Amino acid sequence: MTLSETSNLSQERRERAFQEAVSFGTFIEQAQVNQQALAANFEAYAPDERQLDFLNELQEPVDVLVLAHDWCGDVVANLPLFGKIAERTDKLRLHILNRDPDNQDIADLYKHADGRNHIPTYVFFDGSGQELGVFIERPAEISALLGQWIANFWTDHPELEGRGKPISSLEEAERKELLHFLKLRRTEVIGQEQNAILREIQSIISR
Q1: Is the separation of the CB atoms in 90 and 55 below 8 Å?
Q2: Nearest to 37 by CA among 82, 66, 78
Q3: Model-level pTM greater than 0.90?
Q4: Residues 142-154, mean pLDDT to the nearest whole number
Q5: For 167-206, what is each residue's pLDDT tens digit?
Q6: How far is CA 190 from CA 76, 81, 107, in A?
Q7: Distance CA 109, CA 63 (A)
Q8: Given strand 92-98, what is the order of strands in its sheet?
Q9: What gap in Å lies between CA 73 and CA 66, rounded to an integer?
Q10: How many CA atoms lie within 13 A of 61 on its CB side?
Q11: CB-based contact 54:206 (threshold 8 Å)
């Protein structure tokens, strides 16, 4: 999901966030839940040079403030692409913070259409600190696929209870099985997610 708004974050708060943030490499090193999956997805993403031309042509780097947690499936799925882009170009600088407990104030400035904040949240700034745009959670086409996959999971497992419930409300066994199923499906469309996110980044930067 992409949002385009005037700057919500004060200069003072942005500068403090940048000072407290970590790089993608450090984020992986400190990961306690999905370190291997983050590293594997980083290796799996392979944008070609033509897809990165719009970044390489920039006059100055773009700063991206990222709110994340390594337990989040969407973080595991797409933050590695941002890490790969940052490695392959010198035009994307990542500043990664855990949302909880100390950065909810930032998260609440960039709420999803459902009225809640979500992770990952990516806030883009140009060299002067002007906010360029926000990308939240995942591309719309991946959200549509997730809905299909969840429906397929419950159709394939009529013996399980919980159909129609939010994932967070499921019993632990059902939740783990569903999340494992979704993780496998997500890896099958990593190329599609890569292309969709690159389009989102280009749209934000080119405004």
Answers
A1: no
A2: 78
A3: yes
A4: 96
A5: 989 999 999 999 999 999 999 999 999 999 999 999 999 8
A6: 11, 10, 26
A7: 18
A8: 2-3, 131-136, 121-125, 62-68, 92-98
A9: 15
A10: 14
A11: yes
What is the rounded CA–CA span in Å between residue 128 and residue 111?
Answer: 24
Residue linked to tokens 């419950």: 154
- Rounded to whole angstroms, the Cα distance separating 190 from 204 reads 21
Burial 166-176 (b: 16+ CB within 10 A, else e): eeeebeeebbe
Q: How far apart are CA 184 and CA 107, in angstroms?
A: 28
CA distance 45 to 196: 13
The label of the residue with tokens 């897809």 reads 51
Mean pLDDT for the chain overall = 94
Q: Distances in Å between the alpha carbon of 129 and those of 18, 132, 145, 205? A: 11, 9, 35, 13
